[in-house]
Specification:
393 residues; alpha/beta; Aspartate Aminotransferase, domain 2; 7-stranded mixed β-sheet; Aspartate Aminotransferase, domain 1; 5-stranded mixed β-sheet; single chain; globular
Length: 393
């Protein structure tokens, strides 16, 4: 078995099939001609006469899907036009009217919105559970529990789930475990080694790595693969070959980039934890953070994404902070080379009570020099709390 850095360079590459080209070319096309009636008949998948069509993928698609399946350790992979699309269509592939879904309370916000607005309308009951439940989730299992959907570390507040315990409880009633694995990526967490059935990535983030394409993936083990694949095809999901080419490009440098994001993120989070304006830093790689022991047990590394909670929620403090950051853009998404912040406030939670005070900010440490990032955030915080009327004690 090769080292991960070597795997990320070679996964999904077949230069011998494309005249020796190092990168799989971009194949654009809808119509794929059969060479004969017999070849047309042989191309049918499960009797589907439309499977020999661009919507079911091209060599560019298959190169990327094969690479992700190999890197995550899954049986097969489907690509989607966005991370949210991968989340919602993976859910739809497994649920029917009357089913019960357990979803972690710190799930990605748009996935939560889809569950409450769409799944409930379809007659699927969605129940949220505390992210630190572990084996106690067995108490919530029902005969009709079909899916346990989790994210670890969780969105915005970065709690780490005990995934082997969740998977054991879910499998005891025949449920499937779906994991949003975007934070750690295929490099730093191997979902199928811990019992997960479907691993979902917003490939927009670290896989693409350059903030220039939207893409999602869902990789399944053998048990879940046929259901996932059928669900994806039934909804007609397909990703642009140009975006897939960008994702394949991003894969090749991902281990190098992620190492820098990891070290920058930990150093920045440690520095911010010592600032008088900050009441809490939420980064599972920090030893004093809840969930650190689970992260250390199960994960192979950390990304550059974490959260902080300020001691003040005063709008003047927030305005001065955000307006004086020079290297951190205010913007959604993350995983690119650039550093970002997102004003969050109070995350939406159903069964986990948030602290009464303090404003949450999501931080992404990019690839800039870490000393510059620390200096920039520190000077902005210093300016934010400088006013004596609202100074932080």
């Amino acid at each position: 078995m090769y080292d991960a850095a070597t795997q990320f360079i070679h996964a999904g590459r077949t230069p011998d099939q494309f005249g020796g080209l190092v990168n799989t070319p971009i194949f654009r096309g809808s119509t794929i001609l059969a060479t004969s009636f017999d070849s047309w008949e042989a191309s049918k998948v499960n009797g589907n006469p439309y499977s020999n069509y661009g919507r079911f993928g091209t060599p560019t698609t298959r190169s990327f899907e094969d690479a992700i399946a190999e890197l995550e350790g899954g049986h097969g992979c489907c690509v989607f036009p966005s991370g949210l699309s991968a989340c919602v269509h993976s859910l739809l592939a497994f649920v029917s009217t009357g089913d019960h879904v357990l979803m972690t309370d710190n799930i990605y916000g748009p996935t939560r919105t889809f569950a409450t607005n769409v799944l409930n309308r379809m007659g699927v009951e969605v129940e949220f559970f505390a992210p630190a439940m572990g084996s106690k989730i067995a108490e919530l299992m029902r005969p009709n529990t079909r899916v346990v959907f989790t994210e670890s570390p969780g969105s915005l507040t970065f709690e780490v789930a005990d995934l082997p315990a969740l998977c054991e409880a879910a499998h005891s009633v025949g449920a499937f475990v779906l994991l949003d694995n975007t934070w750690a990526s295929p490099l730093y967490f191997k979902p199928f080694e811990h019992g997960v059935d479907v691993s979902i990535q917003a490939a927009t983030k670290y896989i693409v790595g350059h903030s220039d394409a939207l893409l999602g993936t869902a990789t399944a083990n053998e048990r879940a693969w046929e259901l996932l694949k059928a669900g994806a095809h039934d909804f007609g999901q397909i990703a642009s070959p140009d975006d897939l080419f960008l994702a394949l490009r991003g894969l090749r440098t991902m281990p190098v980039r992620l190492q820098r994001h990891w070290t920058n993120g930990v150093a920045l989070a440690t520095s911010l934890s010592e600032h008088p304006a900050v009441s809490e830093v939420m980064h599972p790689a920090l030893p004093n953070t809840p969930g650190h022991d689970l992260w250390k047990r199960d994960f192979l590394g950390a990304s550059g994404l974490f959260g902080i909670r300020l001691k003040s929620s005063d709008s003047d403090v927030l305005r001065r902070l955000f307006d004086h950051l020079k290297l951190f853009g205010i913007g959604l998404s993350w995983g690119g080379f650039e550093s970002l912040v997102v004003p969050v406030g109070t995350p939406v939670r159903t069964c986990v009570k948030s602290p009464a005070q303090g404003y949450v900010i999501r931080v992404h440490a990019g690839l800039e020099h870490v000393d510059d990032l620390i200096a920039d955030f520190t000077q902005a915080l210093d300016i934010a709390i400088r006013s004596p009327q609202i100074a932080v004690a």
